[in-house]
């Protein structure tokens, strides 16, 4: 009987660690809620870091956003490094994070006004200063023939501003950024 109780207890602990119950972070934006103290049962550090970014472990490991709340279908967006800063090659990687849900809704409104649809919305930030960053985003499934526009959200004016797309090719969209923040990848007819 002790053996069965111990087995059931371990199964429940495993279910708690790998399940994703949710709570509202902001209206309509559920996020995963896990244990307060990762050391209680040995949650791997990588899992804790993924949770801190509201990501699944595979998203955290790939520096990607593969799913967004309130979007049924997204094209994953990842960034693998080698950002060109002010015309110079670097070893900088721009983190790809999940945006606030309000920005997702705003991007959907923008896409609708353009007659298009949102491929994905991400948030990026860096502590590296730059004038212009040429950033290659990996987007598996893009052929390069699509009419893709990338917009950044201007916090001071509460508007979307189109950024320069310097290249579109199979699985890649390359843009010039003058700052970090929320980016919306939108395809139009």
What features would you describe in this structure?
Helices cover 23% and strands 35% of the residues. It has 189 residues and is of the alpha+beta class. It folds into two domains: 1-52, no CATH class; 63-188, Chondroitinase Ac, Chain A, domain 3, CATH 2.60.220. Strands 3, 4, 5, 6, 7, 8, 9, 10, 11, 12 and 13 form an eleven-stranded antiparallel beta sheet that branches. The longest helix is centred in the first third of the chain and has 17 residues, at 2-18. It is globular. 25% of the residues are buried.
Please give a handful of descriptors for the protein shown:
189 residues, 2 domains, Chondroitinase Ac, Chain A, domain 3, 11-stranded antiparallel β-sheet, two-stranded antiparallel sheet, alpha+beta
Can you give me a brief rundown of this structure?
The protein has four helices and 13 strands. The chain is α+β, with helices and mostly antiparallel strands and 189 residues long. Mean pLDDT is 83; it is low at 15-27.
């Amino acid at each position: 009987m002790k053996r069965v109780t111990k087995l059931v207890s371990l199964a429940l602990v495993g279910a708690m660690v790998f399940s994703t119950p949710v709570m509202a972070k902001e209206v309509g934006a559920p996020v995963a809620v896990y244990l307060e103290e990762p050391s209680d049962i040995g949650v791997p550090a990588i899992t804790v870091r993924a949770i801190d970014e509201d990501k699944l472990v595979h998203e955290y490991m790939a520096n990607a956003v593969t799913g967004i709340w309130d979007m049924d279908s997204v094209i994953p967006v990842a960034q693998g490094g080698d950002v060109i800063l002010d015309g110079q090659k670097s070893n900088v990687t721009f983190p790809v994070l999940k945006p606030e849900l309000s920005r997702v809704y705003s991007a959907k409104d923008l896409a609708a006004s353009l007659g298009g649809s949102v491929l994905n919305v991400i948030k990026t930030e860096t502590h590296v200063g730059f004038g212009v960053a040429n950033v290659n985003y990996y987007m598996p499934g893009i052929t390069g023939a699509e009419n893709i526009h990338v917009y950044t959200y201007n916090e001071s004016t509460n508007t979307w501003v189109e950024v320069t797309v310097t290249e579109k090719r199979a699985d890649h969209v390359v843009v010039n950024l003058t700052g970090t923040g929320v980016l919306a990848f939108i395809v139009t007819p």
